Sequence to fold (232 residues):
Amino acid sequence: MKVHCFVTGTDTGVGKTLVSSAMLWSLAASGLRAVGMKPVAAGLDLIGGMWRNQDVEHLQLAGNVDAPLPLRCPYLLRAPISPHLAAQDEDMCIALQPLLLAYAQLAKQADAVIVEGVGGFRVPLADNFDSADLAVALGLPVVLVVGLRLGCLNHALLTAEAVRARGLVLAGWVGSVIDPQMLALEANIETLRAHLDAPLLGVVPHLGSPEAARAAAHLDLRMLRSTLALAA
Fold:
């Protein structure tokens, strides 16, 4: 069974990369050929004498398909700002077609391609399209990572509404505890369960060491596979 999906979040910094990596780790452990794709990554760090993006590195380590960097991340930008602005700084224009071609190549090599978006669902990628347009063009079911903190109910429900307004399937959602001191945490999770109308795939606690294998222990991807099978 193919397990291809688009991972988006309620905001930036809510744990999309950790959840995407955990999904990849779990899928690879189940025997699938799994690879992560970060179509656009903004923000480079000097690691081992080379400029790298940590999100892209984490996705690669969690999967088990050795795909070249230009397919896993067609647009790797220096500045840690909105992608369309980072691209402008480098006199570059992010285009949709190279992203689609890269995804198509990965989908030929893997049973599971986890495509991690940038920031929230509507982050601009260029003057004429955004992350939501990319998700539509890919035609993938969406997994929503909800950063569990004050304000998450509104952010999650608005994002789910936007996903469905684009004609996409919300295949599931994952709670990511980014504020370990959040008041009424369980009550907020129950409210989301009641209103998102999508399977809860797990709640990743605030981890002192945010490793894919540790986060994967808090996910149950059986519901995701069932939803994808029904959507196929």
